[in-house]
Design goal:
six-stranded mixed beta sheet; alpha/beta
Length: 488
Amino acid sequence: MDLPERFIRLIWQRQLFTTAGLTTSDGRAVVILSPGRVNEDVGPDFSDARIRIGNTTFQGDVELHRTAADWHAHGHQTDPHYNRVILHVVMFDDGMRPPAATAAHRTLPVLVLHPFLDRGSGTALMASLSDGEDGAAPPLACRTANTNVSTSIIRRWIEHQAEARMQLKIHRFHERLRELIDERRSIVREPYPRYYGNPDDIPKPREAASRQLWEQLLYEGMMEGLGYAKNEAAFAALARSVPLVTLARQGLHDTPAIMALLFGTAGLLPSTRKVSDRESRAYLRPLRRRWRELRPVIKGPLLHEADWRFFRLRPGNFPTVRLAAFCRLLPKLFGEDGFRRTVTLFKSHTLSSKDRRRGLVVQCTDTPDLFWLHHYRFARASRTSGSGLGASRADDLVVNVILPIVLLYARVFRDATVRRNARAFLADLPPTQQNTICRRVEEQLLGDKVRLGSAFLQQGAIQLYRFYCQLGRCDECEVGKIAFQRNR
């Protein structure tokens, strides 16, 4: 029986085997409390599983293969991404001895599935595939039932969701602002619950008057925004480990020092011994020398190369490329009272939305230097041209980071002009780069009724999909209520 690994993943995900009497290859009882969630990125197949092996309950990752020998064949024994694996699940026993071990030299228990498969497993597997569980995203539940829902209802609901999404972003930055204020007072509190709290419960203007607070808030937001979904957490951790004030002390225009601090803390400065490309070694040596000099100024935790994701990313979106671009952007964003210049764009009565967008795009775009023009990582040169941060990515940062912070600023300081101009700007901002969620909502819900003709409406489509469609909350959705009522 020659099953592709994606079938084995489905068998594990749906638990299409007899779970009673499971044992590891060395005879310990196995109880699967939770099989974990599918990992779409680099690393083990399932994350955050809970499994009792013998008398001990473990929480971590699960890796699946056809045979135990595939662990070494795929190089997992030296890959730190697999250090959290708690169980190696294989379909067939190939008699491999000794069992697999992680890069941290921890031996892994092995579960061989084949003896526990039953006759119904094949039928259930085919049913799983027909339900779209082979990796394709399932269609919207109302795709064939929403044709009679009126244009006005759909548009109002999308607009409502767009507003809800913007409020979530504002609340999230509000919570971080409160944390920064507390850190400034050296007060230790329990973490704030994300997305909750009274919108009117805002810091007093006197508490939030420090420019440094707002610059750190924008700095963290921009860093996180550069990470896309795969590297958001790593960029956010890096921004907290290396606060903006630490970089400012070195001088934001001292790009080599800034790069040494950020790449060094990120764990993304490889040893020159591991780099064969001559140009890369020449570029890397002074950065590593500078990092050794500056390392003592970093008070936060260091990251590891394994914290960063490169798998299934276009090279232009690699974290190394984005971080290099951000190092060059820092003087434009934060030099010469940069945050005040950003807010001033929305204080002016004479600027149009186009003028404001032009000013923000200039602040958020970058042209790569000679090295990054031909490199995506330090290790080797690329045959294709590298990329900086272009206008489309700048628009994403404006919608997801700058506008929510500007609107929070207007709320804290009760600045009606800034609020009014920021709202008008958001309504006028053209759509950002297309994504699969917006495409799916347009094709299966909006059709010819509503066009996602602005960044604001795009945000509404994303919010609707993630908070309603994806969670099956059709009975709480204004479209779903009507669509499914008429089809009963």
